[in-house]
Amino acid sequence: MRIPAAALFALAAITMGSWWPTSRNHGGVPSSEELAEAARANPVTLLVDFRDDVSDAALAVNSYLEEPISRFSSNDRLYRIRFRTAEEAEAAAHKLRQDPMVESVDHDVQVSLFPDEVASGPVESPECAREGKVDTAARSFPDDPCFHYQWHLHQVGLPAAWKLGQGDGVLVAIIDTGVSRVPDLQAARLVPGFNFVADNEKADDDHGHGTHVAGTIAQVTNNARGVAGIAFRAALMPLKVLSAQGSGSMGAIAQAIRFAADHGAHVINMSLGGPFPVTPVRRAIEYAHRKGVLVVAAAGNDGRGRVSYPARYPNVVAVAATQWDESTTFYSNWGKEIDIAAPGGNIRVDQNGDGKPDGILQNTLLPGGKGDGYLWFMGTSMAAPHVAGIAALVMGAGVTRPDVVEKVLLDTARKPKSVAFDGHDDHYGAGIADAQAALNKAQRSRGAATLGLGVALALLGLGLIAVALVSRRR
To answer: Which of 27, 73, 62, 51 shows the shortest CA–CA distance to 249?
Structure first.
């Protein structure tokens, strides 16, 4: 039975409409200068991505000694090859790029935590470690005793947004230094991840950065202890790519992105980066995007007009950092690739006069690995998880396509108090992320999409009835 074309057109028009945006493109094409800089950064080591169908036998006879990035190299064929001199590496790179078995050749540049993250000194808040006394008659939400120091959550529309959603059913992958179950994360939902540094399943933190990032996204909230997190009903997947010294390889990051996409992550947060592009990372981001994953990354802390990689790539939400007064911070990178801004903090000032530094407060490991504490950090590394957390809230509200989630985030971002601009700003992107506005729009849009689908199905039903009547008359 043939369905009337008008009915099919109505179904397509109503269910897609303006709510089905096209993918945003940062550009992200590396310049010849960037490629030359990458070669100078690590002149004797190549990152080679062979075709997935290349056999072990073919690799064994190619005259190179391939070093696996991790156990997953046996599947994705991503390897590191070391040479004695830069000249040998360059000659091999030229030869490998002509090889039909090879998809890409890059210099294996290292990635690290951005400068100024902890250099100015995290400041511990011992009073947050004490569990609050819960008076059920006068209990407020949330009851975390140091929530009042988290000015940064108020800046993005909390706690009002929690009335609309709390991130239920969403999985956020944290590609970082790992995540440890510090006291305020004991009851958090953690799923198995992977350690790409040690090549094993133990993805605990041995630095503190990743645990701090995890807390901003999904710290256990309303537990009469410590502080709060944005999407506290979301689950976390720790993917360790950075060592205890805060450094790692771009190859590991590429594999971690694919791992997250293949193991059910809805959002990926990357609070790390560097100045150099690497093809396998870009392709891994494209792969994750095709599988429905929203990728969020920090813009970088160099205080210059050049957004870092991977935030610079297409299909990544690049996040700049604000401080208490809603100005962008002295360290936050800027440029046309900036999509949105969120609190990154500034521990050098106390603008709100609460007697504490204006950093981002979370429960994490103490420097040196001696216990845990409630520490203020600053950086675009701290800004990115605010956006990842809000994205988890939006996805928990039923909006799941990454392009659509990003559109919600950008459309609802608010303009800062003291800066006026229309459209896009190189320092703020669309503006400061607003969880409450984003959830309101998500719920309205989801309702409209549901209504549209219902109307479309009704029209389709009428079309089928019309066909039946015509057929009966014949």
So the answer is: 73
Any idea which residue has 């976390």 for tokens? 236
Tens digits of per-residue pLDDT, 189-239?
Answer: 999 999 999 999 999 999 999 999 999 999 999 999 999 999 999 999 999
Question: Alpha-carbon distance 266 to 449, whole Å?
Answer: 21
Distance CA 52, CA 250 (A): 19
Question: 330 near 369, Cβ under 8 Å?
Answer: no
- 94/129 same-domain check: no
The pTM score is 0.87
Q: What is the pLDDT of residues 115-162, one digit of tens each?
A: 755 534 566 777 787 765 544 444 689 999 999 999 999 999 999 999
Both 51 and 79 in one domain: the answer is yes
Query: Is residue 439 within 8 Å of 394, Cβ to Cβ?
Result: yes
Write out the residue range of the structural domain in which residue 61 sits. 43-108
- 269 vs 316: CA distance, rounded Å: 10
- Average pLDDT of the segment spanning 280-291: 98
User: Would you state the structure tokens that stand for residue 404, as one six-digit string?
Assistant: 């659509």
User: Which residues are known catalytic residues?
Assistant: 176, 209, 381
Does residue 379 belong to any structural domain of this protein? yes
Please report, for residues 36, 77, 203, the alpha-carbon distance to residue 195 in angstroms, rounded to integers and kept in the order given: 31, 18, 5
